[in-house]
């Protein structure tokens, strides 16, 4: 499976990996030596049976190693808990920075309004004193 199909942010689930390996097993199982598989039916000799069992066992061990390899790749693609937390902290810090900037902007607006209201009050008071 190439990473274009499964981006790093969303690695394939373990079940998909297992399914892939099982499909691979099903596809490769017929590749076991046909003559040796047929020999079980034709020959009473236990050596033929043992030979086929050895091939089957070797194949299944290789398939299991491949499965573990795929699962290992999946784990490598997934960020660690620490990496996930660092990313979350970075996002929160960015959000905090944005909100702090917004608060400062709003505080400046409020200060401007206070100054305008104070100036307006002084004008009104001055006008009232004249009258």
TrEMBL record:
Please give the InterPro entries that the UniProt record associates with this protein.
MED28, Mediator_Med28
Q: Where is it localised? A: Nucleus
List keywords of the entry alphabetically.
Coiled coil, Nucleus, Transcription, Transcription regulation
Which residues are in coiled coils? 75-123
GO cellular component terms, semicolon-separated: mediator complex
- What's any GO biological process attached to this entry? regulation of DNA-templated transcription
Similarity comment text for this entry: Belongs to the Mediator complex subunit 28 family.
What is this protein identified as? Mediator of RNA polymerase II transcription subunit 28
């Amino acid at each position: 499976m190439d990473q274009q199909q499964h981006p790093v942010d969303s690695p394939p689930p373990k079940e998909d990996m297992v399914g892939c390996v099982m499909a691979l097993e099903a596809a490769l199982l017929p590749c076991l030596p046909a003559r040796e598989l047929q020999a079980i039916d034709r020959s009473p000799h236990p050596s033929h049976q043992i030979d086929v069992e050895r091939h089957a066992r070797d194949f299944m061990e290789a398939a299991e190693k491949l499965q573990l390899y795929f699962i290992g790749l999946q784990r490598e693609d997934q960020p660690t808990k620490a990496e996930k937390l660092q990313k979350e902290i970075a996002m929160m810090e960015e959000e905090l920075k944005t909100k702090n900037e917004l608060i400062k902007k709003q505080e400046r607006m409020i200060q401007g309004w206070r100054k305008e209201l104070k100036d307006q009050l002084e004008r009104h008071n001055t006008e009232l004193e004249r009258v």
